[in-house]
Amino acid sequence: MQIAPPKQLTNYIKHYIFLDNPENDIKKLRLFADGNTGLIISGDIHMHDDVLGKNLPLSFFYGQPTHYKDLVTQGTFSLLAVVFQPYFFNLLFGVSAKEIKNEIISAADILKGQLQPFQESLYNKNDPFMIIAALNDFFIKLISKSNPVDYWLINTQQYMLKNKGSASLKDLENFTGYSERHIERTFENQIGISPKKYNTIIRLHHFLSLIKDNGQKTMTGLSYEAGYSDQSHLIKEFKNSIGLTPGQYMKTKNKLAVNFIEL
Question: Which residue intervals define the domain HTH araC/xylS-type in the entry (predicted)?
Fold first, then answer.
């Protein structure tokens, strides 16, 4: 279940995702890049990183992912994913997004016990809409204490999304009035990746939206429509980002979110 934030938070939070697993089983989940950072909140999840083989905290922030990450859960759980706008973590905590790229950080280390009421609400199976309403208030208070938002960066991000990942650095320079070096440095510090990498992610997700809405068209036609030079370029980028071919992805039944699937 995906839920939008209120208008005053849309520059900071993209959406909330609520997941509830009532089955006492083992699930393998894959998280891949969508250009955003986020926060996972749970009161009862048993999750570990399948590659590193280490248990994850009940609640954690994840930095800008540049490759897919496999997570394994065991048993029943309820969780809320707060999907941030890509610059929000840097804005809130003043940490360079480049330094936490691909990292998972315990929320308790940053927010101490501030998330405990939300964890308890999830554990007690409270109404998720009520939990999200309380989280909206929580984030509005946090934002009031944070650095001011950099509107030129927001406008640039929206410009890149509108152009579906095809805007070159020269295009961004003309759009913003800033030098290419300044744009690259700002992206790496506040978003965690270069404009080129961000474009790559945007283009990939544009292709995912095309195959969702135009399932009858050929893969070759859709790859050109999404801006890929040829189908082999698409497949290479797809496998690097998601770890699957487009065909394997399409056969994946349980797509929990735009960047979160059950294997």
Answer: 151-252
